[in-house]
């Protein structure tokens, strides 16, 4: 595995070849990154040192970006989730730089994507309530010119996960 990861990273490939043990380790870490090395090793049927080496190599290859705690927004009083659809008539570098800066400075923007199609950007914004969203909106449009904004309030989160499907590669 280490040769495959090193070679892929050196060649700038986007996908890393994973064996079954790597996939098991990644699956476990996506479910609970607080598992100890002993627990992971036990669950994948390996010893602690090889598991640690695999995790280290997966980090070095960029497969594991970071480990974080996932917080409950409602427990923090952030009960309103808005999906914000943005259309802009501006597409130059200066506008894009100002827009990206504005998004990065706002912690309530928890996701932002540039899209293909009629909508240019979609944001996921987590705030206390509609008033907090309006303050966010007013602040954003005071910094960057936006042609059209549509805000959609999520009534219920049906599925949310940070776990990715781990692909299998042909052998």
Automatic annotation (TrEMBL):
<keyword id="KW-0238">DNA-binding</keyword>
<dbReference type="InterPro" id="IPR011008">
    <property type="entry name" value="Dimeric_a/b-barrel"/>
</dbReference>
<dbReference type="InterPro" id="IPR019887">
    <property type="entry name" value="Tscrpt_reg_AsnC/Lrp_C"/>
</dbReference>
<dbReference type="InterPro" id="IPR036388">
    <property type="entry name" value="WH-like_DNA-bd_sf"/>
</dbReference>
<dbReference type="InterPro" id="IPR000485">
    <property type="entry name" value="AsnC-type_HTH_dom"/>
</dbReference>
<keyword id="KW-0805">Transcription regulation</keyword>
<keyword id="KW-0804">Transcription</keyword>
<dbReference type="GO" id="GO:0043565">
    <property type="term" value="F:sequence-specific DNA binding"/>
</dbReference>
<dbReference type="GO" id="GO:0043200">
    <property type="term" value="P:response to amino acid"/>
</dbReference>
<feature type="domain" description="HTH asnC-type">
    <location>
        <begin position="18"/>
        <end position="79"/>
    </location>
</feature>
<dbReference type="InterPro" id="IPR011991">
    <property type="entry name" value="ArsR-like_HTH"/>
</dbReference>
<dbReference type="GO" id="GO:0006355">
    <property type="term" value="P:regulation of DNA-templated transcription"/>
</dbReference>
<protein>
    <submittedName>
        <fullName>Transcriptional regulator, AsnC family</fullName>
    </submittedName>
</protein>
<dbReference type="InterPro" id="IPR019888">
    <property type="entry name" value="Tscrpt_reg_AsnC-like"/>
</dbReference>
<dbReference type="Pfam" id="PF01037">
    <property type="entry name" value="AsnC_trans_reg"/>
</dbReference>
<dbReference type="InterPro" id="IPR036390">
    <property type="entry name" value="WH_DNA-bd_sf"/>
</dbReference>
<dbReference type="Pfam" id="PF13412">
    <property type="entry name" value="HTH_24"/>
</dbReference>
<dbReference type="GO" id="GO:0005829">
    <property type="term" value="C:cytosol"/>
</dbReference>
């Amino acid at each position: 595995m280490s040769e495959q990861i090193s070679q892929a990273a050196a060649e700038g490939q986007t996908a890393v070849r994973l064996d079954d043990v790597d996939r098991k380790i990644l699956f476990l870490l996506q479910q609970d990154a607080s598992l100890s090395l002993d627990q992971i090793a036990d669950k994948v049927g390996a010893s602690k040192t090889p598991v640690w080496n695999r995790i280290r190599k997966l980090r070095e290859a960029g497969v594991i970006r970071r480990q974080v705690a996932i917080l409950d927004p409602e427990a923090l009083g952030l009960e309103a989730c808005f999906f914000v659809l943005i259309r802009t008539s501006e597409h130059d570098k200066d506008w894009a730089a100002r827009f990206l800066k504005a998004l990065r400075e706002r912690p309530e923007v928890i996701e932002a994507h540039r899209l293909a199609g009629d909508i240019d950007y979609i944001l996921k914004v987590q705030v206390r309530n509609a008033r907090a969203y309006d303050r966010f909106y007013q602040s954003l449009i005071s910094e960057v010119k936006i042609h059209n904004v549509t805000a959609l309030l999520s009534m219920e989160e049906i599925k949310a996960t940070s776990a990715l499907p781990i692909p299998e590669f042909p052998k």
